[in-house]
Specification:
This protein has 380 residues and is of the alpha+beta class. The protein contains 15 helices and seven strands.
C-alpha cells in the first residue's frame, strides 16, 4: 500500500477499467476519495470506465454501498442512453437509404465498439458523413422529413446540425480540415478516398441495420486529429484520448502502420501525434509497441499538454477561458475573449507546430473579424 495523489489513483482506475485488469498492487493506495474520483470522471466523461474498475478492487477500497448504488444507477442510464443512440443511428441510415444516400458513421457508436464494453462508453452526438455530392440533397430531405424545430438547426461549412428527439445529429459535407491550406488539400483527398471509395470500409450491424464505418487506418488518424483539433482550439477530455488508444489496443494488427506513418508526416501532425502518444502509453496504459511513433523524448512536453487537458476537461468546458466567456455568443466581449484564447494557444503551440498554429491563429482572427463586422453592420 502507498499514499497516492488523486490524479495517480484516477489514472490507475482508468487503466483498470479500460483493459479489465486489477490495479497493480504497487499502485494500490491506502484509501480512495470516491467523491474526488467521481468529479474527475465526470469532468472527462469517463464515468462508465471508472465504474468498470470497481470490480477489480480489493473490498476495503471499494466505494460505500450508497455510492456504489449511485454508480450502478448511472451505469444503467448510460447503457440505456447508448441503446437510444444506437436506435437513432439505425433510423438515420434507414431513412437515407430510399434516397440513395449511403453515408459513413464517424466516431461515436462505431468507436464505442473498440472498447471492452461498448455500452459503458459515454455517448455523444451522431456524426454522419454524406460528402459534398449528397450533402444538399441530404440536408433538404432532413429539413422536409426529420427536422421538428428549425431554431434548433445550425450549419457551418463542414456540417448541418439538427436533432432527432434529444440526440444531436451532424450531417457532414467535410469530415474535418487541417488549417494549413497545402496540407489540407492532401488531407481532403485522403478523406474522400477513405470514406467514399476505400474497400477497407467496414459494415457493422447496429440495431439490426447495416451501418458503414471507416477503415481502421482512417480511424487511427481521424480520431487523433479530431481530439488534437479540439485541444488546440479549446480543449478536450480524456475520453477522446481513450477512444484513440482503444483503436490501437483492439485493432493494431489490422492497421497498415507504414502507410499510417507516411500520412502522419504528410498531414503535418507528427509533433501533436507524439505528444498524445506519450499520454496514451505513459498514462492510459497502452503498450508502447502498439503506439506508432511513440517517442519518450516527448514525455516532458506531453506532461504540459496533459496538465491542460486535466484542467480543461471535456471540450475545455472547465477551463478558465471557457468559464470567463460571456453568456451571449453574439457579443463583442465574447469575440474578444475567443480571440484572446486563440492567441494563448498560438504561443503555446508555435514551438511544437509552427505552420499549423500560425494558420490556426489567422483562421480564428479572420472568423472573429467577420463576426465583429457583421454585428457592427447589424447594430447589435
Amino acid at each position: 500500500m502507498r499514499s497516492a495523489n488523486h490524479i495517480d489513483i484516477f489514472f490507475s482506475l482508468l487503466r483498470s477499467g479500460l483493459y479489465g485488469e486489477p490495479v497493480p498492487e504497487t499502485e494500490l493506495p491506502d484509501s480512495i476519495d470516491w467523491r474526488v474520483i467521481a468529479a474527475l470522471a465526470k469532468k472527462h466523461t469517463v464515468q462508465g470506465i471508472i465504474i468498470e474498475s470497481v470490480e477489480y478492487l480489493p473490498e476495503h477500497l471499494c466505494p460505500s454501498a450508497e455510492t456504489y448504488a449511485k454508480m450502478q444507477r448511472f451505469a444503467l442510464g448510460l447503457i440505456q442512453a447508448n441503446a437510444v443512440v444506437d436506435k437513432t443511428v439505425a433510423r438515420l441510415v434507414s431513412f437515407f437509404e430510399p434516397y440513395g444516400i449511403h453515408g459513413v458513421l464517424l466516431k461515436g457508436q462505431g468507436v464505442a465498439r473498440y472498447y471492452r464494453k461498448p455500452p459503458m462508453r459515454h455517448n455523444g452526438d451522431i456524426d454522419f458523413y454524406v460528402g459534398k455530392k449528397n450533402y444538399k440533397k441530404a440536408v433538404a430531405v432532413c429539413n422536409e422529413k426529420l427536422v421538428k424545430e428549425k431554431n434548433d438547426c445550425g450549419e457551418t461549412d463542414q456540417h448541418f446540425a439538427f436533432f432527432i428527439g434529444k440526440i444531436p445529429i451532424e450531417l457532414h459535407r467535410l469530415a474535418t480540415r487541417v488549417y494549413s491550406p497545402r496540407r489540407n488539400k492532401r488531407m481532403q483527398r485522403w478523406i474522400v478516398d477513405q470514406l467514399e471509395h476505400s474497400p477497407d470500409r467496414r459494415a457493422l450491424a447496429i440495431d439490426g441495420v447495416e451501418v458503414t464505418l471507416p477503415s481502421y487506418d482512417f480511424d487511427a488518424i481521424f480520431i487523433f486529429y479530431h481530439g488534437w483539433r479540439h485541444f488546440i482550439t479549446g480543449g478536450i477530455g480524456l475520453r477522446q484520448l481513450c477512444d484513440w488508444a482503444m483503436v490501437f489496443w483492439s485493432h493494431y494488427d489490422d492497421i497498415d502502420i507504414e502507410r499510417l506513418i507516411e500520412n502522419i508526416h504528410a498531414f503535418g501532425i507528427t509533433n501533436g501525434w507524439k505528444l498524445f502518444a506519450c499520454i496514451a502509453v505513459e498514462h492510459l496504459g497502452l503498450p508502447a509497441d502498439k503506439m506508432p511513433l511513440y517517442d519518450p523524448a516527448f514525455s516532458k512536453k506531453s506532461e504540459k499538454v496533459l496538465e491542460e487537458i486535466l484542467s480543461g476537461g471535456n471540450f475545455g468546458y472547465y477551463s478558465e477561458d471557457y468559464m470567463a466567456l460571456p453568456a451571449s455568443r453574439s457579443s463583442l466581449a465574447y469575440s474578444l475573449r475567443k480571440f484572446r484564447s486563440a492567441a494563448n494557444y498560438f504561443f503555446t503551440l508555435f514551438p511544437l507546430m509552427p505552420a499549423e498554429s500560425t494558420f490556426l491563429f489567422f483562421n480564428r482572427l479572420y472568423i472573429g473579424t467577420i463576426a465583429v463586422a457583421k454585428r457592427a453592420i447589424s447594430g447589435k
